[in-house]
Design a protein that fits this description.
- The complex is a heterodimer of chains A (333) and B (177).
- Chain A is of the alpha/beta class and 333 residues long.
- Chain A has eight helices and twelve strands.
- Among the domains of chain A are: 117 residues, Cobalt-precorrin-4 Transmethylase, domain 1 (3-Layer(aba) Sandwich), CATH 3.40.1010; 66 residues.
- In chain A, 47% of the residues lie in helices and 26% in strands.
- A six-stranded mixed sheet of chain A has the order 3-2-1-5-6-4, with helices on both faces. A six-stranded mixed sheet of chain A has the order 8-7-9-10-11-12, with helices on one face.
- In chain A, helix 4 links the parallel strand 9 and strand 10.
- In chain A, helix 6 packs antiparallel against helix 7 and helix 7 packs antiparallel against helix 8.
- The termini of chain A are far apart.
- With 177 residues, chain B is of the alpha+beta class.
- Chain B has a five-stranded mixed sheet with strand order 1-4-5-2-3.
- The longest helix of chain B has 56 residues.
- Chain B is rod-shaped, with a radius of gyration of 27 Å.
- In chain B, strand 4 and strand 5 form a beta hairpin.
- Chain B has one domain.
- Classes of the chains: A alpha/beta (333), B alpha+beta (177).
- The interface between A and B is large, with 45 and 45 residues.
Chain lengths: 333, 177
């Protein structure tokens, strides 16, 4: 009887030992697999973002164009100051903060990305703008091809970006139906005259993609942007580089423009202080006077509240810099 | 007296126990190697990023001469002031790095390592009284650094003079921002 009880206890102990030891070993392996797999996924996700970020940095050193081959179809997002990969609700969503000013569609789902970089000067260099486009986002520029301004503007867009320009009178929405239906996003940009508004185009093309319409007023440097829901937003642009940004980013323009204007403020502060310091080292009174005028102008320029002021002061600073150069004084930029 | 069957069970348990221990050790070693591999990858990426940063910093509007491929020394102090007011902006740009510009020629050995600041700038002896600028420095975890550098042309607009310098970027095997 006693023997039998002892045997039961031994067996019970062995089972308990087996279950507990087995559970510990199993937990160890499960945890290892989880950490290993999530770590690999984290590295891979961040590596893609870092690669894109580094490639943009390398390309941004000077003006130019390129086509990035990501070697696979990726879902990349460019949301103001963030570069993201994957879907926001998905497990493989990663994000990386960026300092770059990127104008492009909100999402790019393609292996190839066309990129164009251009310096934004106002009148001194402020930043490099990045314009991005994939083949799922199509843009159509409509304006008067007889106008020198429109021809100049469209002529500067590199062919690699694939942005056609057509004469306003020749624009027939029906001609573009098949192209529109193959797009994820279709942006129609009118210069000064809009023969068909957002609702007419929407009824023509349907709701298979995101349709955006931009009406640019070149005389005023303003534009009306109609997003994919037909909601209107009024925006302004400072110099052509920013207008290109509006065309490539559409309804996502405002946030990126604000970052660009913040950078404009920072650079103007640097130039204002630079001029103040140079003044303290200058011996020639005529140069000190000219530099002082430039410093005051820069201070006013930095606090400009309207686009009219921005354009006015821009010209004045350009002239002052030229005057300093003529007088053989140190220049603003 | 221990029965033969009991000895067999004990042996089996012992063997299993040893096998499991060896397996766990193997997995742990593999895991450590994996972590090391990731660290090496992070260091490689950090170096790649720092090298790109060298080219970027030379052309950065905050520090460069307008379209002349040189660095404008008169912008360094204003930049440091802006950096102090809005560090987050530049942390996003440079990440964990230390960026230093050093004058190489012509500069006295005695002032080579002397940092140029506002006090040095307002002295009559400037630019002969100092030889380096710490443009940016962020290393919160005091990690050991690796360095990349390039020769740059330094422009002093106050004197309309060009000098030879070196831009150095220390990076910390880290790609975080």
């Amino acid at each position: 009887m006693i023997k039998s009880k002892k045997g039961n206890t031994d067996l019970l102990f062995k089972w308990m030992f087996g279950i507990i030891a087995g559970a510990i070993v199993l937990t160890f392996f499960i945890r290892f697999s989880y950490v290993h797999l999530s770590g690999e996924s984290l590295i891979e996700g961040n590596r893609i973002l870092l690669t894109v970020d580094n490639k943009l940095d390398a390309l941004g050193v000077r003006e130019g164009t390129d086509v990035f081959d990501l070697k696979d179809d990726f879902s990349l997002g460019f949301d103001c100051s963030l570069i993201t990969s994957g879907d926001i609700m998905g497990e493989n969503f990663f994000e990386r903060k960026t300092d770059k000013i990127i104008f492009g569609p909100e999402k790019i789902n393609d292996r190839f990305i066309s990129i164009w970089t251009k310096k934004w000067e106002a009148p001194y260099g402020i930043s490099t703008f990045y314009y991005l486009k994939d083949k799922g986002s199509n843009i159509l520029l409509i304006g008067s091809t007889n106008s020198e301004e429109f021809s100049d503007f469209t002529g500067k867009i590199p062919s690699i970006m694939g942005v056609p320009a057509i004469e306003t009178t020749q624009f027939n929405p029906a001609d573009f139906t098949s192209q529109v239906r193959q797009s994820n996003k279709f942006t129609v940009v009118y210069f000064d005259r809009a023969p068909y508004d957002w609702s007419v185009l929407r009824s023509q093309y349907g709701s298979f993609m995101d349709l955006e319409v931009i009406m640019v007023n070149t005389a005023d440097h303003t534009a009306e942007v109609y997003d994919y829901n037909g909601n209107k937003e009024e925006v302004f642009y400072f110099r052509d580089e920013m207008l290109y940004g509006l065309i490539f980013s559409g309804s996502k323009y405002s946030c990126t423009k604000d970052i660009a204007m913040e950078r404009f403020n920072v650079l103007t502060r640097i130039y204002t202080e630079k001029v103040s310091r140079i003044m303290s080292k200058e011996n020639r009174q005529e140069c000190v006077d000219l530099l002082n005028e430039a410093r005051k102008m820069l201070e006013t320029y930095q606090n400009s509240l309207t686009k009219t002021e921005l354009y006015n002061y821009f010209e004045k600073i350009e002239k002052q810099n030229l005057q300093l150069e003529r007088e053989d004084c140190p220049t603003v930029y | 007296m221990v029965k033969k069957g009991q000895v067999h069970v004990s042996e089996t348990i012992l063997v299993l126990f040893v096998v499991v221990i060896i397996l766990m050790m193997g997995v742990t070693i593999y895991f450590k190697f994996s972590v090391e591999k990731s660290k090496t990858l992070a260091e490689e990426l950090s170096e790649e990023q720092a090298t790109i940063m060298l080219a970027k910093a030379v052309g950065l509007e905050e520090l460069s001469c307008e379209g002349l491929g040189c660095m404008d020394t008169s912008k360094f102090l204003p930049f440091k002031r802006v950096l102090g007011e809005d560090f987050g902006r530049y942390k996003r740009m440079f990440g964990r790095k230390r960026i230093v510009v050093k004058e190489l020629y012509p500069v006295d050995d005695s002032v080579k390592e002397v940092e140029c600041d506002v006090v040095k700038y307002i002295q009559m002896a400037y630019p002969q009284n100092c030889g380096s600028w710490v443009i940016y420095d962020y290393n919160p975890e005091n990690e050991p650094a690796a360095k990349v550098s390039t020769i740059v042309s330094l422009y002093y607009p106050e004197f309309d003079e060009y000098r030879v310098g070196r831009l150095e970027i220390e990076h910390y095997g880290d790609i975080r921002r």
